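Quick one: structure for this chain?
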Amino acid sequence: MTIENLNTVKRRQVLAGLLALPAMGVLGLPRLAAQEKPVVIPPPDRDLAEKGDEAVAVLAGGCFWGVQGVFQRVKGVKNAVSGYSGGSAETATYERTNRGDTGHAETVEITYDPSEVSFGELLHIYFSVAHNPTQLNYQGPDHGTQYRSTIFVMNGDQEAVARDYIAQLDATGLFEGPIVTTLEPFKAFYPAEQYHQDFLTLNPTWPYIVFHDLPKIAALEQIFPDKFRPDPVLVGMLPAA
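Got it. Here's what it folds into:
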């Protein structure tokens, strides 16, 4: 599949978004539909005390274009790669994953410096602006298990922090429903095709990006000004398989 073929894959989602396009909001960006609005939430009560200069978090929250775009603009993130987790290597392609029967979720592998940003801070952003954790097996116009809200935990410490934070957030009543984010043991991450990498930055005028993803960047800057960086860290060209 090439970038041109994405017009076919995303056509209905984009059209649905444009038909529902509300009044323009601040910064000239469209206001998010109610189910996609960012939520101001407290940080986690507990966090990881990680050592070293590099750690990894693997998060899924709908289309990876927006999730990648958000975390590429977080200070302390060294790299954020779009890809697939939850299924096998043989089905780790966009065309196969898009069928919704591979076990894969569209995922972003986030490599970060724990001295600059913590796992808990990444989860704070993930639950607040990167996606809506109350939508079961869909995000906005994208439906299927490949768009599920999932944290692929790397170890027991990540699992404990994530599980406690979900319980903490549910208790606040700040969301319109219970959080449905699942915790799955990390097994493997497979980078997505080159044309998916840095998609938000490279295609800022795509209707899907304008309607669904650019407002997330604006929300990140507004809600997390101390963590926001205007120049994203980009993937660039991936090594040949």
